[in-house]
Amino acid sequence: MEQPLQLPPSDEELVVKTLTDKSYFGELVDRYEAKLSRYVTRLGVNNPDDKLDVLQDIFLKTYRNLNSFDTSMKFSSWIYRIAHNETISWYRKKNVRPEGHLIAESDELISFLSSSEEAADISFDKTKNAEVVGKALGELDDKYRQVIILRFFEHKEYEEISDILKVPVGSVGTLLHRGKKQLASVLNQDEIRI
Amino acid sequence: MNQEPQQKNNSLKESLLKRIESEGVCPRSRLFFTCQECFIWSIWLLSVVVGAFAVAVSLFVVTHHQYALYEATHENLFTFMVEVLPYIWMVVFGAMVYLAVFNLRHTKRGYRYSLARILLSSLVLSFAGGSAMQFFGLGYSVDNILGQQMPVYVSQVKLEQKLWQCPDEGRLIGKMVFSTVATATAPAKIIFEDMYGQRWDMDISELSERDVALLNSNQSVRLLGEIKNEKLKSFHACGVFPWMVSKDVTMEDMSHEREMFIESVYDHMKKADERLELLENETYSSSSLKNESVCANIAAVKRMPEKSSN
User: Cα separation of B234 and B244, whole Å?
Assistant: First the structure.
């Protein structure tokens, strides 16, 4: 006889279970450690020890605040928000700036940038110049860089970005558009050919 | 081969669970977050309510200022407005709207709404609440209570008193305390006591019947005129106007009062014109010169624009 397909518990179900049994939290850590580690790196924390510290803070804060999780949003958006805030706090605490070693590995970002009027005369060769684009990203205003990272590196939807950065959904589109303009202008200014 | 990352993963998970266990880390209770959210909403509500109070008092102040008689106290409407606008309440209102917007944006889902929408909703709520409060007379009560309790707060009553209790500029607030009827040998004697208890011997020869009736009504009134003799404390009255700082005074009352004021001022103006005509025609008698109109020369009359012929 065929066994009914057992789906793994959703994040939201794990949150409920964690509140009664803390060992379930390990499952959430397993699910998000790699994703958040990449995200934190993209926000500019590159040193492995620093990253580990930030990740510990993120998960501890998540655990402490499980009861404040708003079920009207995705758990992933909520934990990304914590990750974002903790990383910013970490910078403030350490009084340092992001190290800006983003690697522009996203095809989507390149094609998004190609669609910009400001970048019309820039030719793209992503294999050679992805790192250059990454560096240019590092020069963007924080608010634009954060939205671009979430959209093109973390592949988040507008609504998720809105929940993570706590900005209205309409503003996400505006920030992306302005970010694209600024990115193209930074690339043009430096006469970078990609 | 791929054991190292897996080991690292496990180490983070394990170290986290160990830390949670050893440090006794617990999820904060739901009540804590509910209280936090309630606190933010309460501050929001408070700021909207205080904002509504600010609107109510501002509405009261703006609608109950004595625009009707502004020529009596100021050069023009602009200087009058500059002095009487409720700046403090405007600042309070601005601060409360800012606080309301700030708090609403910091509620659990406040960030989902645009700044314009949040700002507009706070403004609309404060205005609606303020208008309702003013409708029930709360604007007057708040202004009056604050004026009584806080010496530094200039309430509408205090402001009107400041504007009208100014004998050197020909304005008094008070009531008639003593009067005699005119006889063949002696004119009527009217004693008026101002708000500081100073008694004035009043010359009411240029007052209209309406003015005299108002003066006799035993109510607080505002007097417009000129000091005749500072030492003897005698005052020449040119107009009597009711004390109108009250929540019951309507715009209609104010408008009626303005009509009365204008009529009174033009009456005095007419007297001056008539006298000028007499002088030009040189048909005046010596007694007409003695009876020259004092009221025709007071500041309020001079400030009033010429009446158009049609």
Answer: 25
Check residue B189 and give left, alpha or beta (phi > 0: left; psi -120 to 50: alpha).
beta
Q: How far is B129 from chain A (nearest CA, A)?
A: 27
ipTM of the complex as predicted: 0.77
Å between B30 CA and nearest CA of chain A: 5
Closest CA to B199 of B147, B234, B237, B244: B234
Token digits of residue B236: 């020449």
Q: Residues of B with CB below 8 A from A60's CB? A: 16, 19-20, 25
What are chain B's domains? 30-160 (no CATH), 165-303 (2.40.50.140)
User: What domains does chain A contain, in order, with CATH numbers?
Assistant: 11-94 (1.10.1740.10), 107-189 (1.10.10.10)
Residue numbers in B near A170 (CB within 8 A): 114
The predicted model scores a pTM of 0.73
| Digit-coded pLDDT (tens) for B126-180 | 999 999 998 888 888 888 899 899 988 888 888 888 888 988 888 899 988 887 7
Closest CA to A98 of A57, A47, A150: A47
Q: Measure the CA–CA gap between A142 and A84, rounded to whole angstroms.
A: 12
Is any Cβ of chain B less than 8 angstroms from the Cβ of A20? no
Please name the residues in contact with B149: beta carbons below 8 A apart, sequence gap of 6 or more.
none
Interface of B with A in 70-129 (CB under 8 A): 108-109, 111-114
